[in-house]
Amino acid sequence: WMWKGSLPLLLLAAAVAAAAEPASTLEGPSRPVTVPLREDRGHAVDLPDTDPRVQRRVTGWAPEQIAVALSAAPTSAWVSWITGDFQMGGAVKPLDPGTVGSVVRYGLAADSLAREATGEALVYSQLYPFEGLQNYTSGIIHHVRILGLEPGTKYYYQCGDPAIPGAMSAVHAFRTMPDVGPRSYPGRIAVVGDLGLTYNTTSTVEHMASNQPDLVYANLYLTNGTGTDCYSCSFAKSTPIHETYQPRWDYWGRYMEPVTSSTPMMVVEGNHEIEQQIGNKTFAAYSARFAFPSMESESFSPFYYSFDAGGIHFIMLAAYADYSKSGEQYRWLEKDLAKVDRSVTPWLVAGWHAPWYSTYKAHYREAECMRVAMEELLYSYGLDIVFTGHVHAYERSNRVFNYTLDPCGAVHISVGDGGNREKMATTHADDPGRCPEPLSTPDDFMGGFCAFNFTSGPAAGSFCWDRQPDYSAYRESSFGHGILEVKNETYALWKWHRNQDLYQGAVGDEIYIVREPERCLLKSSIAVLRL
User: Fold this and answer.
1) Which of 52, 66, 108, 143 counts the most CB atoms within 10 A of its CB?
2) Active site residue 428
């Protein structure tokens, strides 16, 4: 009778387990969900420059702001760091990059760093031709590419200049990505957007680090470089160029070093990285501070590039550079996609800053020109997942193409609020009376005006839906980060971790994203047609 008496308990346990299993895209489009706004908004105030976590902790030519980035393949990686301090003022004199060497010593044990690689160094400046604005010049930024690494292997390293006393870092360690192939994947990939450098940021980063990611994808902006806490208090009240407060880049690099020195981080530019200065120069800090696999992926641009991580081919695209079909970025994308062999890297994941499928009022349909130019090409190659930011709220779509539910469309996920200081998006374009006016003038950097009233579907004749659109599966105004766990060539588990869940073991949003190549037309270098 014990067996009979236990049967209801067994059935109950099975039912609970089944109920706890995340939903799957195999089940078809999910009904749209909007999570009510919480009163607790966290602490969206910048860390002050007196916080020990952002202050310079080294002396002389010792390295700081150490970071690891991936190359296009797991057999190489980039190590970056800064030596010397920045200068800020009316007249600044750049440091000589040749003053300090760019050397990385590395090996398989902390006490056996027998191999050595060298790289290059540079400085950048942010200059303004107006009185009342403070110029800036950076410390010496070093980038070294390490070659001949074994996939899926832990390496120990030091960086700096061994010829100068006290100019080498402590020993750090990182792990290379698994070998490229359909059966090997990074354990966890963390995804953050618009991280900023606030007290909310510290909560996001702590939460993210507790999940022990193998790779971090950061959809900028990372810093609050767009101004000080009180812009008009610190600088001229009216200037043709809005000054960007460059020291916050250094503060962010110092704060993040415990993460970035051991976990590879890949980035893509956003609108806050434009940072226009004298001579209409833009993206100076972004282009100088990070290492990109641009040469390896043959884009030769810091704004768009690709790399492999196990069985995933990642493509980073630029929403703030020319994306027209006649432009260099589009031609590079065509070539890159044509080289992808889906029998080797089954998953195709892309990232850029401004979302194509956001239903929030903020930045609504702002990137429509980019979508019109590129979506059909990406769709024809079976793009699986898109990560974006910019909107300062979380949203996940159903599989969608051209605003229509499509089993072969990509899942678009916007992770736009990791803790930045700007206002979180809380209103939706489908809220009564909240539909924004169509843009009357094109954005200088977004490349035109393409958002018109819909011509078909439930919103035909209107600029906005009158309810949460069918393609929007889940949306929530919350700070947090995401974790992508690719299980095999078919299944990937996506989780959205809200900051408020840090000590509760809870997950805000969770779903299995399932590839169905047999249903979809895939263009690839192996020219396979699966019906």
Assistant:
1) 66
2) no
